[in-house]
Amino acid sequence: MSSDSPPAPPKKKRRVLIFVSALALCAVGLAASGIMNRARSKQEVTAWTNAQIVPTVRVVSPERGSGEQDLILPGNVAAFVTGSLFARASGYVTAWNKDIGAHVSKGEILATISAPDLDQQLEEAKGQLVQLQAAVEQAQANADLGRVTDQRTAQLVTEGWSSKQQGDTDHLNAAARAAAVSVAKANVVAQQAAVGRLVELTGFEQIKAPFDGVVTARNVDIGDLVTAGGTTGRALFQVADIHRMRIYVNVPQAFLGNLAPGVKATLRLPGQKQTFEAELVSTSNSLAESSRTALIELQADNPDGKLWPGAFAEVHFHIPADPDRLSIPLTTLVFGAEGMRVAALDDDDKVVLKPVVVGRNLGNRLQIESGLSPSDRLVDGALESIQTGDKVKIADPDPNAVARVKAAPTKSPSL
């Protein structure tokens, strides 16, 4: 039996159409997702690159001064008194008793010199002194005899038993013999001086400490030949009085107005935690033309002997200061053709280069005469290439956060 209605499409063909449509929709979805992912990755790359271009800086602010400021200058420590001991007697060293670092008292024997020639000269001079003393006695006896003879002759002349000529002769002989006594006594005095000189020279056979102190150098040994009067070579010993020390400092001209006798200072020595107090006692009252500095002297007690001659010291002067004067670290200055400037930041963390007038150099900081306010934020360690308008990022002030950032690996966004 026949029918007029068209035949229905087969089910297999319908399934194919549905599958093809689904594939097309999936392809369109995948393409759209890829395009969106690539756009997102490009944005991430751009943002990451821009973040890497913006430099990270540390920010500091100007600080107001206190009622006093510390001026830090290098100083040289010296002993209160230093003695260089040379030989005053020629001979050979037979013994030395004190080595470097030994504490000695005034008059203590440091070394002994054998000088037989000098000893012989002393004995000879003593013998000559004995002879001259005997000559005085002889001259005195002759003078006594001349005086008695003169008296007797004068009596005989008066009584007419002797001539006047004989009387005059005996009188003059008595005067001559009296003068001979004076000459003999003078010779004794001269010889006593010669003996005394030789005694002093023989005393120099013992090298003695000139004052209480410490032996800082010994340049002699047993058997060494030393020559009297030699001061051009090395000293046999050096002794330093270190109960009180002198500290010498070269002070720039700008600070001399604040330094006068009586100003206190603190000494810091490398390798020592202890500080020492010193007092300014004198100034040179003149400037070195090459450096425009003046030499000043401070003194410090040294009861424990921890201050050594020749040591380097940081001298911290406590001088009056203007409490309203601002100061900044040296590392904030930017040098260029326009002069000294600082890199300040505005509210948007953009750089504004400000010219400043620099005052005193305080060591690691500088006083600023004008150009800044206490609220300014300054870039610490700015490069010379920094310009006004540059964008910067402020470093995290939290040290733990900084440590975490440094420890974390740097990742770039995937493309």
TrEMBL record:
PANTHER family: MULTIDRUG RESISTANCE PROTEIN MDTA (PTHR30469), RAGD PROTEIN (PTHR30469:SF37). It is found in: Cell envelope. Residues 115-142 form a coiled coil. Residues 87-236 form the Multidrug resistance protein MdtA-like barrel-sandwich hybrid domain. Keywords: Coiled coil, Transport. Belongs to the membrane fusion protein (MFP) (TC 8.A.1) family. The keyword Cell membrane does not apply. It holds the Pfam family BSH_RND. Its main location: other. Residues 328-379 form the Multidrug resistance protein MdtA-like C-terminal permuted SH3 domain. One of its GO terms (cellular component) is efflux pump complex. Residues 249-318 form the CusB-like beta-barrel domain. One of its GO terms (molecular function) is efflux transmembrane transporter activity. This is RND family efflux transporter MFP subunit.
